[in-house]
């Protein structure tokens, strides 16, 4: 009886097990990210309805150049990028991005503090056309590319967590004349099996007008777009110290007003997007 009571007291006093889900980047590390995005979009303008389906497949190579306190340097290179978007001429960048490389400096919290390669990226997607350069710089400013690069590393918390623990993150992204996107994500450590931690995500996403005046011939003067559903599931390999799988789903809808060539156009939009991704040491292009 006393032995049973002692064991019960010890178990009651024992702290819950916690897990470190931090990235472990080492100099010389090479890994690959393969993502697939499917987007179904419905836009209603002046009584006319347009249905669009966009599919994107991207393979990226990451290489860790150096690791120092507060300044880890990593390269991200496009190995393949394909877009299928019937009815949207110019959307498929195809091999324009092949071998385009960004070099980022990450702080201890895996946030990008410096980005190199932006100008070469703009040259690649614009074919040297000055008007196209202006458009791409407005729609994808360097700060947006920097944030996109950093998204790869920001799923995991910056401290040890136990099963059922939650952590939050808020991201804001400026899209030039298109407006601004804000996401608020709540992550939960759902389970740990072996070295694999499963993380769920539920969040909100909103899109508002208010982009900077870029001098372009159009702008979104009013917008009320919100995510009706924004969920995800991620697997983190604690032994490798990196994300291994991701899946996200978003359903967004609302209204917006576009001003162009002296005209005001009101539109309704409904969009469903799914994204799946894997991170591996094998090169998906050749393996």
Please explain how this structure is put together.
Strand 4 and strand 5 form a beta hairpin. This protein has one domain (20-280). The protein is mainly β and 287 residues long. It has an eleven-stranded antiparallel sheet, covered by helices on one side. Helix 2 crosses helix 3. The protein has helices spanning 2-13, 118-126, 130-139, 142-151, and strands spanning 30-45, 48-66, 72-84, 101-106, 112-116, 166-174, 180-193, 196-208, 218-237, 242-260, 263-280. The longest helix is centred in the N-terminal third of the chain and has 12 residues, at 2-13.
The coarse silhouette is: globular
* Helix/strand structural class: mainly beta
Fraction of residues in H or I helices: 10-25%
Give the strand content.
Answer: over 45%
Total number of distinct structural domains = 1
What gap, in angstroms, lies between the N and C termini?
A: 60 Å
From the alpha carbons, calculate the radius of gyration and give it in angstroms: 22 Å
Kindly state the mean pLDDT as a whole number?
83
Largest sheet: 11 strands, antiparallel
Instruction: Flag low-confidence runs.
Output: 1-15
Number of strands: 11
* Number of contiguous helices: 4
What is the succession of H and E elements?
HEEEEEHHHEEEEEE
Sheet with most strands: strand arrangement:
5-4-3-2-1-11-10-9-8-7-6
Question: Assembly type of the shown chains?
Answer: single chain
């Amino acid at each position: 009886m006393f032995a049973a009571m002692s064991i019960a007291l010890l178990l009651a006093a024992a702290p819950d097990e916690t897990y470190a889900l931090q990235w472990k980047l080492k100099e010389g590390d090479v890994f690959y990210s393969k993502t697939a995005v499917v987007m179904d979009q419905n836009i209603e303008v002046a009584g006319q309805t347009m249905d669009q389906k966009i599919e994107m497949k991207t393979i990226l190579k990451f290489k860790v150049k150096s690791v120092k306190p507060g300044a880890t340097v990593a390269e991200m290179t496009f190995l393949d990028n394909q877009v299928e978007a019937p009815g949207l001429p110019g959307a498929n960048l195809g091999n324009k991005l092949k071998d385009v490389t960004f070099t980022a400096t990450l702080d201890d919290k895996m946030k990008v503090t410096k980005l190199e390669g932006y100008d070469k990226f703009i040259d690649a997607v614009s074919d040297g056309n000055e008007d196209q350069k202006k458009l791409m710089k407005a729609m994808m400013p360097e700060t947006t590319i920097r944030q996109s690069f950093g998204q790869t590393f920001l799923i995991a918390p910056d401290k040890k967590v136990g099963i059922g623990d939650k952590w939050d993150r808020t991201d804001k992204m400026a899209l030039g004349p298109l407006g601004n996107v804000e996401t608020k994500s709540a992550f939960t450590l759902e389970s740990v099996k072996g070295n694999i931690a499963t993380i769920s995500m539920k969040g909100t996403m909103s899109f508002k007008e208010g982009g900077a005046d870029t001098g372009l011939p159009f702008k979104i003067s009013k917008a009320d777009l919100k995510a009706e559903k924004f969920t995800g599931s991620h697997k983190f390999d604690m032994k490798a110290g990196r994300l291994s799988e991701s899946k996200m789903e978003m359903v967004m809808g609302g209204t917006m007003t576009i001003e162009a060539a002296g005209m005001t156009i009101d539109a309704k939009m409904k969009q469903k997007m799914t994204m799946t991704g894997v991170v591996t040491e094998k090169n998906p292009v050749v393996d």
